[in-house]
Design goal:
Shape: rod-shaped
Distance between the termini: 42 Å
Largest sheet: 5 strands, mixed
Order of helices and strands: EEEEEEEEE
Helix content: under 10%
Oligomer: single chain
Strand content: over 45%
Radius of gyration: 22 Å
Number of strands: 9
Length: about 130
């Protein structure tokens, strides 16, 4: 089975500091015998900014960060900037995974998600003797 990803539209240009920024982060997906491993590149966010949800076989990873930069010089305000960074990625989960056992960790801008596969019963082979 494979994970299917749905990417939101991405506008390829440099935003000004005051514009809202919504981008789709890079994601590495690796399948191993025991499950799927996702690595989401998300620098500038903290683990408190990130949300991971599973609903009806869909895994959604989203993050939102608001910043307020202000020049605090005496007198007239010459510059005041607000920025808003966010992303959202969704993945359709195959029936072969355990959606309730997903684990995640975040370290130095990399979100790591482990999606375990369901345990499969080994197929027993029984030899039937012909009488």
């Amino acid at each position: 089975m494979r994970l299917i990803t749905y990417n939101p539209a991405f506008v390829n240009r440099w935003p000004s500091a005051a514009e809202d920024v919504t981008q789709s982060p890079s994601v590495n997906v690796t399948e191993k015998d025991n499950g799927f491993y996702l690595e989401v590149v998300s620098p500038g966010f903290t683990k408190e900014d990130i949300s991971i949800e599973v609903k009806e076989k869909q895994l959604t990873i989203s993050a939102e960060k608001k910043t307020d930069a202000e020049n605090k010089e005496e007198g007239k305000v010459w510059r005041k900037e607000y920025s808003f960074n966010s992303f959202k990625r969704s993945f359709h989960l195959p029936n072969t995974v355990e959606g309730d056992a997903i684990q995640a960790s975040y370290d130095q801008g990399i979100l790591k998600i482990y999606i375990p596969k369901k345990a499969t019963a080994e197929t027993k082979v029984k030899t039937i003797e012909i009488a």
